[in-house]
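On clarity, I found the account of how folds are encoded harder to follow than it need be. What matters is that the chain and its backbone geometry are given together, residue for residue. The format is easy to grasp once an entry is in front of the reader. For illustration, here is how one protein appears when written out as sequence plus structure tokens.
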Amino acid sequence: MKVNCRYCKSTNVVKYGKRNCKKGGIQRYFCKDCNRYFSENTCFAEMKQKGKIIATALHMYNKNISLRRIVKYLRVVYGIEVSHVTILKWAKKFRL
């Protein structure tokens, strides 16, 4: 997969180490054309919960499972306390 620079859209990009965060290392890149560093963000980059948790909750929401039942499932299976309002905000953010 070819990575494009997020600033100048060039493909003249090289890997430049990893950036550490709560969710593990995120690949950093350096653009040789505009001399800028950047990281490739995922759609869940700024979210507090892991992408797997959010994706599971949204999948269940799309299957018309009640918000409170989703909250109970996440608590039992993953040991995570999330409010039903949070799940609704995730659905609105990703337009489901």
